[in-house]
User: What shape does this take?
Amino acid sequence: MDNKVFDKGQCIYCGQQRILGQDMGSQDAANKEATMTCNCEAGRKARRQAKECQIISGMFPELPEVTVDFLLQMADMIREEQLYSGTSVKVAPNVTAKFKLKDGSVVVTRSEKMEHQSSI
Ligand SMILES: [Zn+2]
Assistant: This one.
């Protein structure tokens, strides 16, 4: 098979084969797509985490990946009530990430202290 088409992938969590309906270009990409569209619990969790990661990095674009990971971990702990709703972390001299639990979802707020000072 010279013209291999990567239109089938396997969920990395449950092993379920999924037909993707389009050529993903490589088996890795096809497996990733299969995982991201799988309905198993781990697949759904991975999808949720990928989405949360996107949201957090969008809200705090200046933060390195390790800090974004940390905030995601905090969001999980707040969702599981291992940390209290209302927890906040200072992620930059003037930037705070605030976490609130509302109806089972974690609400993240970027709070920026803006001070304008002039010497005249
Ligand atoms: Zn799966």
